[in-house]
Amino acid sequence: MEKAVGFGKELWNRVQKDDVFGIAAQLAYFFLLSLFPLLIVLISVLPYLPITQEDIFGIVRDFAPKETMSLIENNLNEMSTRNGTLLSFGVLATLWSASNGINGIVRAFNRAYDVPESRSFLVARGVAILLTISMIFVFVVALLLPVFGKQIGLLLFNGLGLSDEFLSLWNMLRWLASPMIIFLIFSGLYWFAPNKKLTKVTVLPGSIFATVGWIVASYAFSYYVSNFANYSATYGSIGAIIILMIWFYLSGIIIMIGGEINAMINKSKKAHAE
């Protein structure tokens, strides 16, 4: 119990020292700038994949507040028809723009680990772009699991002679793609983003915290907005944007705290090793 209290106090001190809430506000701004470019890139690869635009909306809809979904869907539909769907220089430029949010996370994690950004501007931005592409890849794989999950399960079932219970379990597990994709994305961010060599194991605590915390916070905020808050009455037509910014702000706080947890554990292990 004392260790848990001590850990909580140290974490809170780091949150204050590293200005987590201020950085989360900056991340919310970068997330807003990155959201539509990132979705445009996803839409651009749809003609080459057996998934639809609605599949992408389905995963976003699971966590985003309802009031923001019409804003996202309407703007994305308009931009996708205006920009086309072929991969081109325009989409590459969009990737650069979409990496702004990841680039902000890279700087924030470097601050959590107290390490300077020794990589050049192009290298650091290249890392952000690669992480963005990796996020898209993992996201697409998660979308494909519900599409091909049944066929894969049947193949395993017939080839290995497994029981009916296994097939039922497989059909249930393949719909857990959303939490899996969130966990993988957070793990990749915590592992590769900081300018510091880390192992897979050291990033797991922050990844688990961020995954659970983000899902719970998203559902709780969505419930609050749907049942108690009326941002449209206060902010008028920009109410949906305000909701989206608050959701991004909460997400930024959770991502940053996950990074602080990993940095604390890393520092503690280093101190014990010495």
UniProtKB/TrEMBL annotation:
InterPro entries: Virul_fac_BrkB
Organism: Cytobacillus purgationiresistens
Keywords: Cell membrane, Membrane, Transmembrane, Transmembrane helix
PANTHER family for the chain: INNER MEMBRANE PROTEIN YHJD, UPF0761 MEMBRANE PROTEIN YIHY
Cellular localization per UniProt: Cell membrane
Main localization of the protein described in the UniProt heading: membrane
Membrane topology designation: Multi-pass membrane protein
Protein name listed in UniProt: Membrane protein
Database matches in Pfam families: Virul_fac_BrkB
Transmembrane portions of the chain: 20-46, 86-106, 127-149, 169-192, 204-225, 237-259
